[in-house]
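Predict the assembly for these two chains.
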Amino acid sequence: MSEVPSTARVVVIGAGIVGNCLVGHLSRLGWTDMVLLDKGPLPNPGGSTGHASNFIFPTDHNKEMAFLTVDSQNQYIAAGMNNTCGGIEVARTPERMEEFKRRMTSAKAWGIDARLVTPAEIKELVPFINEEILLGGYYTPSVSVVDSLATGTQMRDEAVANGVLSVFANTEVLDLLTEPAPGGPRIKAVVTDRGTIEADHVVVACGVWSPRIAKMAGANIPLTPAVHQMADVGPIDILQQSGKELAFPIIRDMDTFCYERQSAGSMEVGSYAHRPILMRPDDIPSIAASALTPTELPLTYDDFDPQMEQAIELMEMLGDAEIRYAINGLLSLTPDANPVLGETPEVRNLWSAAAVWIKEGPGIAQLVAEWMTYGYPHMCDPHGSDISRFYPHEKTEWHINARCNEHFNKTYGIVHPREQWASQRGLRRSPFYAREEALGATFFDARGWERPQWYSSNEQLFAKFPQAATPRTHEWDGRWWNPVTNAEHLQMRESVGVVDLTAFNEFDFEGPGATAFLNYMCVNQVEVPVGRSVYTPLLTPHGGFRGDLTIQRLGEEHYRVITGAFDGGRDHYWFNKHLPTDGSVTFTDRSQGICTIGVWGPNAAKTLAKIATDDTTAPYDLSQGGFPYGAVREVLINGVPCTMYRISYVGENGWEIYTRMEHGLTLWDAVFAAGHEFEIIPVGIGVYAVTGRIEKGYRLMGSELESEYNPVEAGLARPKVKSADFIGKAAYLAARAEAPAAVMCTLSMDSQQCADGYDRFPTGGNEPILTLAGDRIVDAKGRVSRVTTAGAGVSLGKYLLLAYLPPEHAVVGNKLQVMYMNECYPVTVEVAGSTPLFDPTDTRMKG
Amino acid sequence: MRVLVCVKRVPAPGAKINLTADGQAVDTAYLAFTTSPHEECAVEAAVQLVEQHGGESTVLTLGPAQADEQLRYAASIGINKAVLLPIETAEWDPQRTASAIASAIRDVEATDGAFDIVLFGNESADSGNFQVGVRVAHALGRPMVNGVKGIEVDGASVKARREADAGVEVYSLQMPVVLGVKEGINLPRYPTLKGRLASKKVEVAQVAPGGERGGQQMITLVQAAEQVSQTIVLGHGPEAAPAVVDLLEELGILK
């Protein structure tokens, strides 16, 4: 048995599609002195890669996953390991036909050739299908089957040939050693049954075993092994007679969650319809104890039987085919169905590259390689896959299992962009929860927080604002939405409303180094007077958006960062990673102890003036001059110690008011009592995050703000650049020096009327913006113009869209189109840049 | 023609089989179960006999409730009826098993008619006692041939062929007979999807197994010593050719 080297720059654990491609990409990026380990034999060590069905359907509604899938398919093509056969997703239900229109729209956005086909056309392509039970299909000619083992081998061999990689198969990892370091432990070594390797970086690319390996270092990779059933049935004459590995398009029988994929003379039938069957990594059999491989478990037939009947219904010939190979194949599921990538928050230089499908493997390997090389990926924004996105409660086995049990059967499901989780609800509730519930709140989940999206108590406002009560004719447009949001919007703009913002994260940075540290992290100057604040992007090293938040200066050496629920984990990691090691700054996460409301509207000041005092019980000056925009003050509200912050995300005068959790209910009741005479209402996140925001053109991290775009393009560049250095500064200066390749624009729909004669309402799910000729719009950096947010501009009477457009299209008055559900609608560019469409001078907000 | 085939639920081969800590049972945590390979061939033979000569086939097993899986597997490739002799304790000894099966066969025959041929596998894949088929034949007073690799039915007689040291032995028997089938007699088919679905509808008759404990008692199971295979690298590239030739000659492949 050969010994492993005693040191390495990086050890990659796992020689599946990800680990193999990762060492290849790291080699291309100049890494040397690498070791690749697997406890199994090569080329198939026995993980999920070895039994994958290996096909790629490129269309995905999610931009990140669509990009990585198409990129991966291109890598397979470049490797000569891509066998194009086409693929048809078939519909048995009208709902699925609607979904195919949505898929056509996403295909248009990502530049994927696809078309809708009739049952007769399906029959022509797949003569053995029972087209009589089908309503139609979604045909993608570029669907392919790839050789993931051979591609991985090729990438691995490339690194070996470059002299930068040693490979050790049949080598088991026994332990991961860490060493104490400022800001948390750092990876030190990998202990194997062939010796110990000291390493600067360790990557866990162990698929279903990843949690077990990461745990050795004290890190948590939240995924669960889960069964995907698959059977190879044959021989089948028509397939054998084709004389080809793939002579017919792959069929995805979407409404039965099943696929049929030719494999030479037989057919692979795979299922996502059976009950979720989750396992623990430690319960996976060893290689020795596995009849096939550890991830090919015996098929539990009872679970598969209903699928067989459906398969025979679709292809009668399958009934007489013999079941020659049938497995409960293991794959990785995560709580939100996205991969788990990046440096683990718990251990420095310990990386996760897990929960990755064959279809996106090479692309993700490149993404992680770039992340390790440049500090952040260049190819696309990885925030949906970033391991640091998870909050602690989301990394428990309880949560992982609950969410995976819920979404497994949605693998082929029709998932609405606003769809809410049913499991693991009510885990985080603000102190206002009981009041909100009594007001008829419909709660949406915000990383565990229950946030009112709208309130049925506000339906009474329909009498006052009849124009708000517009229903949405198409069920899809109105799903997870309620017209009462429009009424809440109008009442807030007319008088005053209260928004529960407790899901915010509050991070305190204190100490003599706090100013310098935050200035290094942020684009804008944080050294404002005490009691003032700054709104600022955080950049990646290459100048794209990494974060977007506000910072309050509470003292000479005390700053408080306010950031959103969906970015808290990632921001927490980013600040912690860069925290000075000299002890000059302390970082305290105060999110658990603080609740927040936003009080906004023309009567917000009048409402709060009745109850706001200083510590001498003197009324607090809330006038425009006395409490200027952006100011942060300690105020008593009905005796409750609060921090008031004059700011707005909805374009109205008002405050975010923070207090300790235990004071929350008293604060809420006091504000509502004071506002009674102004007909104060509770306002849902439907206004805060969509209608109020979009009228002001405010950007949202993860929607408009991604690492692929810079502040110049987003219209968030300030006139001057501070002298202090900060992450991404060089790239930022370069971006300022050149004309932007894209400009963030606000567009309005000129007509929403669909072919069937009623209005449609895009959901803001990456709908492509097209020229009048119907062509995609791609900017000079290759980025496609698509809707990043869509929503009603209720006060403007227009339906608004946010999208990046190349400069030649980013011209006010320019006429373009938006595609939604495979139909095109005329749109007009209303604003190019960040000027709000509603109240462009911000008079309502700032006086 | 009425054919009965007796099978046994055994751990699927192909992987290291672990034992429980007390050595009294096989650790089933990661195990799939199957029918002993000789019995798979017996099931196939039963299906073929009925295909050729008409009639009906029945599969019978003595085992835990989960042995339903093996009965239905047999049904999925074409066996018509199924009988389960459910037992709750660990494995029964061969004497008791044979006694229970013989008694059950008599019961079934009393209502449905005699079996012309009762098939067994030559031996079970797990315990390998080589006893049950012979004991059943003896109890039923029927002729028995073991190691059978060929069956020909001609009227009321059966020719059973089996391999001998130098040549083939052919036995002629008058039905009813008991035959112990050996792997290689045929290539068992896989179930089809339709067969699998049809097997779910087969009714499994239950017969309470009787019989006293026999003389053989399991004391403990012992894990067989792991067979260590050694790999010798003969060389790399064309230089390895002479060594390969030497080895092939040594093995008698090249002469």
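The interface with chain A takes residues 12-18, 29-30, 32, 69, 189-194, 196-197, 200 of chain B (CB under 8 Å). The longest helix of chain B spans residues 94-112.
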